[in-house]
Design goal:
Elements lengths: L7 E2 L1 H8 L4 H14 L1 E2 L6 H11 L6 H12 L4 E3 L3 H6 L7 E3 L1 H7 L3
Parallel strand pairs: 1-2, 3-4
Length: about 110
């Protein structure tokens, strides 16, 4: 990996994986996060997040997706990686960060 690469998870992403009901799947997520990813700091202002979510909901119905994008923008994350095809279809032109799939990211980073 290039030196400038690091991975962070956002508050909404953490809330989503914490709701996984299958203990084995939850443990797998937590284990992976603890080894490879850190929580983004400082956390974004919740009022600013909600204001941006309201704007993004005009273009995409997934409230948590919009919240994840807003959190990314407000914490100055440069690239948001997702496997969600609806997210990738509806929000890239509205995003203030680079939005891409994992394979697009690896290609872009020449990994």
């Amino acid at each position: 990996m290039p030196n400038e690469s690091c991975f962070h998870y956002l508050p909404t992403v953490e809330a989503e994986y914490q709701r996984i009901s299958d203990p084995a799947k939850l443990d797998n997520h937590v284990s992976w996060v603890l080894r490879h990813i850190s929580c983004v700091m400082p956390l974004p202002d919740s009022k600013a997040v909600q204001a941006r979510v309201s704007q993004l909901l005009e273009f995409h119905s997934g409230e948590n997706d919009c919240k994840i994008l807003a959190e990314s923008e407000l914490t100055e994350i440069e690239t948001l990686i997702t496997c969600d095809t609806r997210f990738l279809k509806h929000l890239p032109s509205k995003a203030r960060v680079r939005l891409c799939s994992p394979s697009e990211y690896w290609d872009w980073m020449s990994v």
